[in-house]
Specification:
279 residues; alpha/beta; Alpha-Beta Plaits; Rossmann fold; 2 domains; seven-stranded mixed beta sheet; four-stranded antiparallel beta sheet; 7 helices; 34% strand; globular
Length: 279
């Protein structure tokens, strides 16, 4: 990885929290691959070949009156990626039931132990959206269900879904790095029922699932909800995250047009993860 050129952004954020957490989540969806938090804000990295001049155009928090955020950026050369994320990746515990940790962390005493080596993929559980989706999975019945994890990132949600009893799972991501990382993490957690694919909703033709998990972003969700609805079995459930609470009304209306009723939500620092069911 040492020859990959990166663009590094230095963000100063006030107030620091939850500003930094929201900023990291939004940057993750925009393609930024790693983040280092500090006492002033966040340093974020993206591969130069993935960078574009308007990369921050859809970062909503930059336009928020609740936060003051300034930034500078410059070109850097990656020297030791693993060392950098190992220093900053801390294990997390969700609802005293699920631990998300790296291979070099001590084994926890929680019921579910997920070993994730995120590298450049989004979805370690630290971001609000992933954290809430973990909560949905452990609070709902996945036993014996067929499950799709759309936009799987590290594969974390599919891995947890298998551990809570799902019988057959598919994990899909359009990004090659996420696909490869998910394959690695599925093997690392000794999962036997997860198939990982690289691609988008075009892969869902003629597919059917009991549960679909999609932690992506608002625009892609709005575009693909109709496809998800067609892929759900009777009494199926759709879990969506990757958007703000203010966007829930629009998401709910789009789901309703496709035969999906709002049933439940979890909120965390202005982000929301919602559950919908087939009418």
């Amino acid at each position: 990885m040492s020859n990959i050129i990166y663009i590094g952004y230095e963000f100063k954020v006030a107030p620091l929290q939850p500003g930094s957490e929201i900023l990291i989540a939004e940057l993750g969806y925009a393609g930024f691959e790693s983040f280092v938090e500090n006492h002033e804000g966040v340093t974020a990295y993206i591969q130069k070949e993935e960078w574009r001049a308007d990369i921050l155009a859809d970062i909503q928090i930059l336009d928020s009156e609740e936060f003051e955020i300034t930034y500078t950026f410059n070109e850097i050369e990656q020297t030791n990626w693993n060392e950098e994320w190992e220093k900053n990746f801390k294990p997390i515990i969700v609802d005293d039931l699920v631990t998300v940790r790296a291979p070099f962390h001590d084994q926890p005493i929680t019921k579910y132990d997920l070993i994730i080596e995120p590298k450049m993929s989004f979805g370690t559980g630290h971001h609000e959206t992933t954290h809430m989706m973990i909560q949905h999975i452990i609070r709902n019945d996945f036993n014996g269900k067929t499950v799709l994890d759309m936009g799987c990132g590290t594969g974390l949600l599919a891995i947890l879904a298998e551990k809570v009893g799902a019988s057959k799972l598919e994990a899909i991501d359009i990004d090659n790095w996420c696909y490869l990382n998910s394959v690695e993490n599925v093997e690392r957690n000794r999962c036997e029922h997860i198939s990982v694919f690289e691609g988008d909703v075009a892969l869902l033709q003629d597919k059917k699932y009991d549960i679909i998990i999609a932690n992506i972003n608002r625009n892609i969700l709005l575009q693909d909800i109709a496809v998800y609805a067609k892929c759900l079995n009777n009494n199926g459930s759709l879990f969506l995250s990757g958007f703000y609470e203010d966007d829930l009304k629009l998401i709910t209306e789009t789901c309703a047009k496709n035969g999906l009723l709002f049933e439940d939500k979890i909120l965390r620092n202005n982000w929301v993860a919602a559950k919908f069911v087939i009418k």
